[in-house]
User: Which sequence fits this backbone?
C-alpha cells in the first residue's frame, strides 16, 4: 500500500487538509458533557438556524426524494434571476460555494498555470489550486486584507485565476468598491477574477457594491455567493457562481450532473424568498458584532474590524486560550493555519452566546 500511495503526485501528497471548526458532538464526547451545554461560534453559521420558509419547503420535498434532482436547477436559477438582475445561463450552482470555487480552478487551471490570492485569505483557494498541481502565488496582505496593488503586480503570464474574498474570511476586511473596480479594470485579459462574496448580505447598505452590474462591464469577472451564511443552510451545501454565460458554460461542463441535491435546491429557493429571516439575521449580526467588539475592547484586546458575521481577536497564546475556551464548552476557530497564530476567530452568535464567549474569554486570558 505504501508504494501505491507514493505513486500519487507529490502535489497531492503535500496537501494540508482543510481544518473545519470542531463539531459540537465531538467536544461533547471529549468532555463527557451534554451537547446542549456547548456553544459553537467557529464556522460562521447562522445563529438563528434554518429559515422557516426553507424548513417548510424541506418537509414538503421529502416524498420526492426517490427521484434525481433537477440537474439544471431550473427553479433555483429562476428565483435567483428574479432577485438579482442576471440571466439563467450566467449561473453555475454548486454543492456549497466551495464547489464552484473548485469548478473555476478546474475549468481554467492546468499544472502549468498559476493562481494568485492574498495572505490570510480563505483556505479553500490554495487547496483547489494545489489539487490541480497549479502554482499558488500568495501575496502578502496589507492591514490584514488583500493588497490589491501587490496582487496586480504578482500576476504572471501563466496566471489564469485570481481569488479574492470580499469581505475576506478570516480577517473580515472589505476592499473599497473603487479600489476593487480599478483592480478589475486593470486585469490582463488572460485572467479570471473569482470574487467571493460569501458575506455580501451582511454588508450595511453604504458598503454594498453593484458587483452584479460589473459583470456587464468586465467579462473576466465571476462572482460566487452562498446559502451557508445569512440564509442559514450551511448543512445543505448550496452556493452559486455568476459570470458571463461563456464562463458559466465552461464551469458547468466540469460540474457533476447532480452536484446539488433536491433538498438543497428546494430549501435554497424558499430561503431566497424569506426576506424576514434574512433581515432578522442581518440585524442580529449587526447588534452582535457591536456587542462582541465592545466586550473585546473592554478586555483590552486587539481585534480586526470586520464586515462579516465573525471577528478575529488577538489573544496572544491562542493555543492555550482556545484550550481554555474548549474546556468551558465554547468552540471558536484558531487561525494559525491562516498565518495568524496569535488570533482566534469568533462567529457572531445569539446575544447570550456572545456574552458567554466574552465571559469565558475573560477567564481564559486571566488563566
Ligand atoms: C463560508 C465561506 C464560503 C461558503 O462556503 P460554502 O461552501 O458555500 O459553505 C465561501 N467563501 C468564504 C470566504 C467563506 O468564508
Assistant:
Amino acid at each position: 500500500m505504501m508504494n501505491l500511495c507514493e505513486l500519487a503526485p507529490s502535489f497531492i501528497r503535500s496537501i494540508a487538509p482543510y481544518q473545519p471548526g470542531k463539531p459540537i458532538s465531538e467536544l461533547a464526547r471529549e468532555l463527557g458533557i451534554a451537547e446542549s451545554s456547548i456553544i459553537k461560534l467557529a464556522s460562521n453559521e447562522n445563529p438563528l438556524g434554518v429559515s422557516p420558509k426553507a424548513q417548510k419547503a424541506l418537509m414538503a420535498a421529502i416524498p420526492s426524494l426517490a427521484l434525481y434532482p433537477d440537474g439544471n436547477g431550473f427553479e433555483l436559477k429562476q428565483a435567483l434571476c428574479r432577485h438579482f438582475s442576471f440571466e439563467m445561463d450566467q449561473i453555475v450552482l454548486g454543492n456549497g460555494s466551495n464547489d464552484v470555487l473548485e469548478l473555476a480552478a478546474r475549468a481554467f487551471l492546468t499544472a502549468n498555470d498559476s493562481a494568485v490570492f492574498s495572505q490570510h485569505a480563505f483556505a479553500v483557494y490554495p487547496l483547489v489550486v494545489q489539487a490541480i498541481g497549479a502554482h499558488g502565488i500568495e501575496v502578502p496582505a496589507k492591514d490584514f486584507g488583500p493588497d490589491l496593488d501587490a496582487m496586480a503586480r504578482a500576476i504572471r503570464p501563466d496566471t489564469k485565476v485570481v481569488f479574492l474574498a470580499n469581505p475576506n474570511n478570516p480577517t473580515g476586511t472589505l476592499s473599497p468598491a473603487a479600489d476593487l473596480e480599478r483592480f478589475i479594470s486593470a486585469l490582463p485579459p488572460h485572467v479570471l477574477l473569482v470574487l467571493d462574496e460569501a458575506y455580501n448580505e451582511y454588508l450595511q447598505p453604504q458598503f454594498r457594491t453593484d458587483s452584479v452590474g460589473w459583470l456587464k462591464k468586465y467579462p473576466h469577472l465571476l462572482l460566487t455567493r452562498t446559502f451557508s451564511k445569512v440564509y442559514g443552510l450551511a448543512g445543505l451545501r448550496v452556493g452559486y457562481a455568476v459570470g458571463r454565460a461563456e464562463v458559466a458554460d465552461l464551469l458547468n461542463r466540469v460540474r457533476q450532473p447532480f452536484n446539488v441535491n433536491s433538498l438543497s435546491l428546494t430549501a435554497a429557493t424558499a430561503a431566497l424568498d424569506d426576506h424576514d429571516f434574512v433581515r432578522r439575521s442581518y440585524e442580529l449580526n449587526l447588534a452582535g458584532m457591536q456587542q462582541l467588539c465592545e466586550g473585546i475592547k473592554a478586555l483590552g484586546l486587539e481585534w480586526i474590524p470586520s464586515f462579516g458575521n465573525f471577528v478575529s481577536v488577538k489573544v496572544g497564546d491562542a493555543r492555550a486560550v482556545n484550550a481554555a475556551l474548549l474546556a468551558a464548552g465554547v468552540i471558536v476557530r484558531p487561525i494559525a493555519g491562516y498565518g495568524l497564530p496569535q488570533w482566534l476567530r469568533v462567529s457572531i452568535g445569539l446575544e447570550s452566546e456572545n456574552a458567554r464567549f466574552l465571559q469565558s474569554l475573560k477567564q481564559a486570558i486571566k488563566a
Summary: The CA atoms of residues 323 and 364 lie 9 Å apart.
